[in-house]
Design a protein that fits this description.
The structure holds 2 protein chains of 2 kinds.
Chain A lengths: L13 H41 L21 H41 L5 H13 L3 H18 L9 H24 L4 H9 L4 H9 L4 H17 L2 H6 L7 H10 L5 H33 L4
Helix pairs in contact in A: 1-11, 2-5, 2-8, 2-10, 2-11, 3-5, 5-8, 6-7, 8-11, 10-11
Chain B lengths: L2 H36 L16 H5 L4 H32 L6 H9 L6 H11 L10 H8 L16 H26 L3 H9 L4 H12 L1 H17 L2 H7 L8 H10 L4 H31 L1
Classes of the chains: A mainly alpha, B mainly alpha.
Chain lengths: ~300, ~300
Amino acid sequence: MAAEVVQAPGSRDAGDRGAQAVRRARWTRGVRLAVLAAFVLVFLIPVYVLLVTSFKPLTEADPSRAWALPEVWTFEPWRVAWEKLAPGIWNSVLLAVPGALISAALGSMNGYVLSKWRFPGADLVFTLFLFGMFIPYQGVMIPLVQLLVSLNELTGLNGVFYGGIPGLVLAHVVYGIPICTLIFRNYYVTVPDEIIEAARVDGAGMLRTYRSVVLPVSGPAFAVVIIWQFTALWNDFLFAVFLTGPQSWPTTVMLNNIAGAQTVPYSQQMAAALLASIPTMVVYVVLGRFFMRGLMAGALKG
Amino acid sequence: MSVTRVRRWLPGLLLVAPSIVAIAVFVYGMLGWNFRLAMTDKHDEISEGGFVGLENFIGIWDQQRWHLSVNHAIVFTAVFVGGALVLGWLLAFLMEKGIRGEGTFRAIYLFPMAISFVATGVVWRWLMNSGTGERAVGLNRLLDGLGLESLQWQWFRDPDWGMAAMAVPAIWQMSGYVMALFLAGFRGVPEDLREAARVDGCTEWKVYRHIVLPMLRPVTLSALIILGHISLKAFDLIVAVSGKQIITDVPAVFMWVAVFDSHDPAKGATIAAYIVIAVSIFVIPYLIWSLRKERR
């Protein structure tokens, strides 16, 4: 990006200038590639540490070998980490799968109505929803705990709402409404109004139109929302720490407990961290395209 | 309003009604409830709590821990938002004209987004271990190996700049996202616009200075808001890296301690209310701005 990039016309003959430009373009491309590759190395440092440490036997825990590859590779840390983490992983599955599906169903209906079957004040409702996307959840946490505790007492179902997975799913579904509605609404805006109108003229009601016209083309939006919510629910720590107990701790809380204990060797901590990350990493690798779209939707319309 | 028109939109309203009620209760109702609780003297779990106005909001400023946590949040936010913006912009800038292997680069810069802050915290606590000399592991050991022992420091345990170190994993995790935002921004600048400027004799530098960068302003603002509100809510990462230590205390962690360790709902609610206020100050104008833009 040097300032003297463009020569005054006629200062050199055109052929020479062309060759120079090509050389410079090649050079800047090389520099760009080198810098990007250097950042790749930096970005992968934590991954290297996680992998290498997780396969080390306890005898190689000495600081002097911190960055070295294991001399003897062992699966022992992974085995122990799995034993400790498995109940949490199961809880996370029970949390993230139904939570993501319910969120997607709600978001789809909301997005459909707010873009294609609008009622007076629909814009205001949408705006009020959007603020819910940005609120710090600390601001609702104490009342939420109180409400779930009293739901336990009211229903007599101890450890279901407060201290249980259903309560956590409820919280995630409710606070996921804004982002899910936003993604579906922005997607349905691209569906031509004429198709909806045509169905209307044919006498189809709201639900018929939704089922026969809108739902069949909703695949990509469902993929985006389900992936987004699955990742968010799987990775959540804040709600889990406030709303769950030892029986219902999801992966993140268990991982934090394992890692927070001074007695657990680093190899097990790292194996546990990797185990906890595998489901979302698989989703990212296989369905990265949809993951990206969810991310961009989170930025509203930048 | 005619009956037929009401018939037309009423089913839609009914379908959205459960969500409207849920948002009304769980977002607005509970925010209000929290503010109400913050204005009582319910400093333990049994008492009823009488109304005390803004007493808690003022009283908390007498506590040293609150001052510390606010300062920490400011340092963390400044370093994290600044760092992620600069790094994300740089990566996007290096890629915007297309480069071989772009898909791979993007995938690698973005993958930390798919991981929980807790898992990130586990590895970064090891990397930012404060041991030096013989006991050094993590980055301090790496510095030692590179012959840069003088750069070894306490990382997040440093009493003055510990929170700057705490921002490093957050930058690692979020700069790929900023890159994706900026990359979309760069690509949104029409190529003919750049070409026209070049024909008019603009140097490549001037094309950036006068055409591309001004058009990136909305993206920059979005990134700033998103990073800022993530930063003010920062909780997972800090707990995962250092637990409840005062040395890395921020309001979100302080609130957790107030609720679970001090069993003081009114104090927890007060801290939570301050976090809500801090986030709202820049999210509300942003929402109004982006909705106006959308309508245009």
